[in-house]
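Input chain follows. Return structure tokens only.
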Amino acid sequence: MRKKRWRRSKLESVSKTLQAHIVLFVVGAFYAVNYIVAKDIMPTYIGPSGFIFYRVFGATILFWLVHRFISKEKIQREDYPRFIQSALFGVAMNQLFFFNGLNLTTPINASVIMTSNPILVLLASALILKESITKWKSIGVGLGVIGALMLIVLPVVLGSGFVDWSEGDSLGDLMIFINALSYGLYLISVKPLMAKYEAMTVIKWVFTFGCVMVFPFGYDQALAVDWANMPIDIMLGVAFVIICVTFLVYFLNAVALKTVSPSVVSTYIYLQPVMAGALSVGLGMESIHWIQVLAAGFIFTGVYLVSIRKKRPSE
């Protein structure tokens, strides 16, 4: 009888873990498609800052509606500064730099640079939380920085005479890098709030404060959008970014976190350059250059070295 219960419990655990990985794969796919969809929308139909305006405000409305039905939790006034800080790094800087950077650079460059996020989180943890950095993690940080700089600096140094970077832009790559850095700072800032409040409560208020910060940057571009003459497929693309890439992704990540650890969730960011690159090349939007492949190799190796954990004696 005990053996049957153990087997049943084991099967249920495996089933939940499998479901969590499927959910995270869907999240990675949403992010990868986002690089392609957003690139088609900007800047022809909506300016990057105006797009963020609609994305943040639309997602905030959805978060408030859902939170109203599933929770009555309120936040304490003394936590307002940390919520504002999280909104600055996680919504305002993160999304404004990402969309403005993606507007200038290519989906492949953007997705590869984003994989440096775990390295940036490690650096932020060392500086802010005073966590120790091992020798291998230090090497990983160095490799990741080299890979990111290859995509940001080499287009300027080598020039168009060596390789055709006409589709990319070093300023755009730099903005994507700043976006990755700001998101790393957001993860450090929001950690105490996640321990104190429900995930939906935290996300709702982070986006609420983020709305205030994004408003002055995206208001003019948002008003300039000609919705009456916008093609249906572009409207569907905007809806996809608001509902799937912003609101639904946060919800699915919260569901996955009930079963697997945050470190497992973060590893799925590595799917983004693979999926985004495959989509971009498959759709004929761009081609892959050996420098991009080499830079990706440096970043992936660096992220692996940063992510590996020293085994305990008991293990």
